[in-house]
Each structure stands twice: as C-alpha cells, then as structure tokens.
C-alpha cells in the first residue's frame, strides 16, 4: 500500500543528508558499474578468442613434419621428414571411419604471379576441394577447385581477395589467365578468409597440378583433418585428443621416428587449444565476478552502516513513535524503505551507466583478444535485483535494532 507520508519522510531525510546519501549511493552504483563492465570485458575476451578460432574449422587438426632430434633404429638425428601422397592415402584407409573432412597441401612460397603489367609474389598452395571448408574460406565470386580439377590436374586457381586487388584492381578476374612462374593458370574463383589480408594473399590450385608443375613429385607438406562430431564439447575434445595421439604414432611408425621424438612430427589440435583458452576465460570471468561482488558487498556494508547512523540519529523520534503506539513492524518498514530505495536507485544508475559505456565504447574496442564486449541484459537486471535484496538485508539489522528500542530509553537519548 502506497504511504505518502512515509515517502515524504524518506525524501526529507535524504534532503537533510545529501552528501551522505550521495556517497552511499555512489559506493553501491560503482559496485554495479564495475561488475557489469568486468562481465562485459570477460565476454569480449571470450568473443575475441572465439573469433581467433573461427579462422579455421573449429575442430581442425593440422600436421606438419619437422626434423628428427634422436637416433632411432640406426638412423641418425637431423633427418628432415617429408610426408607423401601415400601417407595421405593410408591415413584415409586407417582412420576414414572417424574423419569428417581432410586435405593435404603442397606449398610454394614466394611464387611470382603475373597478369598483364601487374605482378606480385604470393604463397601458392596445392590442395583438395575440402580445403575450402577446412580453412573456413568464403567465395565472393566463381567457384572453388573441384574433383575434376584434381583428377585431370587442371591448371585452375582460386585467388584471395588481396591478390585480386593487387593484380586485377577493379577488373573481374574470373576466366582470366595468370602466369605462375611462367605457367598459365585460369582464375575460377575469388575468396575471402576470416584470417584477414594475410590469408587472402594466397592462391589455391589442385594439389596434383602443383606437384607436377612445380617439381613436387608426391610430396605433401601439411595435412588438415576434422573429425566427425560427438555429442558434447568434452566428448569431441577427448576424441580429438585420442585421434591426435594415434595419428602421431602412425606417422612416426611410417617414417621410422623414435616414439619420444617430439620435433619430427608436429600436430596442432585446435579443439585442445580452444578448451584451454575457454577454461582460462571461464576462470577470468569467475575472478571478475568475485571482484564485482566484493565491490557490491562493500557498498552494501556502507548502506548498513549509514542505516545504523540514521537509527542512532532518530532514536528519540523512534521512541516517541513507539510511545504513541507504533508497532515494531512499522519501525522496521520505515528503515527498510529508505535502505531499499537508496540501494535500488543507485543500483539502476550504475547499471544504466555501465550498459551505456559498453553500448557506445564497446564497439570501438577491437583488439586481438577483446571483441564486442557486451553483457547479457537479463544477467545485469538479475544482478540489480540481488543488490536490492542485499540492500534489504543490510537495512534489516539496523531496523531490527530500532524496533527493539524501549520508548523510555529512547526518550532519554540526547
């Protein structure tokens, strides 16, 4: 029930103690502000990490060979390992039931591409049609290399957006002929990549063509693999980890490498990396929650202390009220109303300022590991509700103390 007299009393108390009320509200508002901003930064860090992993397929495993560091079965250390087409074929035979998509690449760095009077040096990768999905490539025009290109060793190429701008400017490159170190290739597609300009400064051609045209023989430089999806993220990580272990053993066996030689075969598992990063992000967010909650608790304690001071100042008034027949519950309600009012107003002001900051400043923050810092509005509102409840609890103890004051003692108070 709305009690105008009680609200007048609250506003009169606030008017008499403007600075005290302002500082109390500021401590509460700053608590909410800090908590919401920290949660927004935590979400921005999570978005930034997720964006980094979007550059490739989310469950990608890629493999590249290195140099042996240990003697094994009479073979000296220092051997450079070279994977072959047969490794790729045997991989499909042995693990085909678990593999979703896979591709091998034969890479040529710094090859000169020429179109008309324009030329430039770019990374040319021979690969399979599945490379498009494995590298999360999006076509802006034309098509990607296909099985027919692979089977017939066609001289076709898909160029990155940066290559298109360098060589063709505003001209449509589809169907045009480009020389790659003197060999003519037909442009069949243009792509973009979430990885940005570095990834878009590359050219993709059929691996069979790359091996024949550029002296690759049957060499394969890298393997890209994704596994069939599991029921949960943890199950996917477990399956991916087990597969990486078996793949390592398979390649070391084929190339006569010591089982404990970790420099000869390198396997990067993005799911394992993602789990480590997301686990770290969860710990950081938990830390942010802890800092924010501690700040809010400090504000609530301040509210409780102020309410104790108010009770002390109004002891004679409370004694007169009780002497005139005021019930303990009415005394408690009087103190609680002021406590909840100050806490709620300060909490919502802190929430509004923090959400405004994230709304207007957040989109301007775009570092490598922080992107689009936001906070779930429901979480923010629930935080304020919890704060108001905490304010009620903070005001209850001073109110309870006020309700227990005996009128005769209160009237003697100076």
TrEMBL record:
Q: Which residues form a coiled coil?
A: none
One Pfam family cited in the UniProt record for this chain: FtsX
UniProt organism field: Christiangramia aestuarii
Q: Which PANTHER family match?
A: ABC TRANSPORTER PERMEASE YTRF, MEMBRANE COMPONENT OF TRANSPORTER-RELATED
What GO terms are given for molecular function? transmembrane transporter activity
* Entry protein name: ABC transporter permease
Instruction: Report the subcellular localization.
Output: Cell membrane
Q: Where does the MacB-like periplasmic core domain lie?
A: 21-239
Output the superkingdom of the source species: Bacteria
UniProt-listed InterPro entries = ABC3_permease_C, MacB_PCD, Macrolide_Exporter_MacB
| The keyword Membrane is assigned to this record | yes
Domain named ABC3 transporter permease C-terminal: which ranges? 291-407
Annotated membrane-spanning segments are: 21-41, 286-311, 331-357, 377-397
């Amino acid at each position: 029930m709305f009690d105008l007299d009680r609200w007048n009393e609250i506003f009169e108390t606030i008017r008499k103690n403007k600075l005290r009320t302002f500082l109390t509200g500021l401590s509460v508002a700053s608590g909410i502000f800090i908590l919401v901003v920290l949660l927004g930064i935590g979400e921005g860090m999570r978005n930034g990490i997720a964006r980094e992993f979007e550059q490739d397929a989310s469950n990608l495993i890629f493999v590249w060979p290195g140099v042996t560091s240990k003697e094994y079965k009479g073979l000296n250390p220092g051997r450079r390992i070279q994977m072959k087409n047969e490794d790729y074929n045997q991989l499909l035979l042995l693990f085909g039931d678990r593999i979703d998509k896979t591709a091998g690449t034969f890479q040529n760095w710094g090859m000169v591409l020429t179109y008309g009077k324009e030329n430039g040096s770019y990374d040319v990768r021979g690969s399979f049609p599945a490379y498009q999905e494995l590298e999360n490539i999006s076509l802006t025009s034309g098509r990607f290399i296909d099985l027919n290109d692979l089977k017939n060793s066609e001289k076709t190429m898909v160029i990155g957006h940066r290559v298109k701008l360098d060589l063709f400017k505003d001209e449509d490159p589809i169907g045009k002929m480009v020389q790659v170190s003197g060999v003519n290739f037909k442009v069949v597609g243009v792509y973009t990549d979430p990885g940005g300009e570095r990834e878009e400064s590359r050219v993709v051609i059929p691996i069979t063509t790359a091996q024949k045209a550029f002296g690759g023989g049957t060499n394969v430089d890298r393997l890209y693999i994704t596994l069939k999806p599991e029921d949960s993220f943890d199950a996917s990580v477990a399956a991916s980890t087990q597969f990486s272990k078996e793949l390592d053993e398979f390649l070391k066996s084929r190339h006569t490498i010591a089982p404990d030689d970790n420099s000869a075969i390198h396997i990067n598992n993005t799911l394992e990396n993602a789990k480590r990063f997301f686990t770290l992000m969860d710990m950081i967010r938990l830390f942010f929650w802890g800092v924010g909650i501690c700040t809010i608790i400090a504000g609530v304690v301040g509210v409780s202390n102020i309410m104790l001071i108010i009770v002390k100042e109004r002891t004679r008034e409370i004694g007169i009220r009780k002497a005139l027949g005021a019930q303990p519950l009415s005394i408690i309600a009087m103190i609680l109303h002021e406590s909840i009012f100050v806490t709620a107003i300060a909490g919502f002001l802190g929430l509004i300022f923090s959400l405004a900051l994230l709304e207007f400043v957040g989109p301007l923050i775009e570092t490598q590991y922080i992107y689009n810092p936001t906070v779930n509005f429901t979480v923010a509102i629930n935080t304020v509700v919890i704060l108001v409840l905490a304010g009620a609890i903070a005001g209850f103890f001073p109110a309870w103390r006020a309700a227990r004051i005996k009128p005769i003692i209160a009237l003697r108070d100076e």
